[in-house]
Amino acid sequence: MAKVTMAQALNTALRDALREDERVLVFGEDVGPLGGVFRITDGLTRDFGEERCFDTPLAEAGIVGLAVGMAMGGFRPVVEMQFDAFAYPAFEQIASHVAKTRNRTRGRIGLPMVIRVPYAGGIGGVEHHCDSSEAYYAHTPGLKVVTPATAEDAYWLLRDAIADPDPVVFLEPKKLYWSREDTDPEAPRGALPFGRAAIRRAGRDATLVAYGPSVPVALAAAEAAAEDGVELEVVDLRTLVPFDDGTVAESVRRTGRCVVVQEAQGFAGVGAEIAARVQERCFHSLAAPVLRVAGFDIPYPPPKLEHAHLPGVDRILDAVDRLQFTDEPDIRHLPKGAVA
Question: What amino acid positions are annotated as catalytic residues?
Answer without folding.
Answer: 129
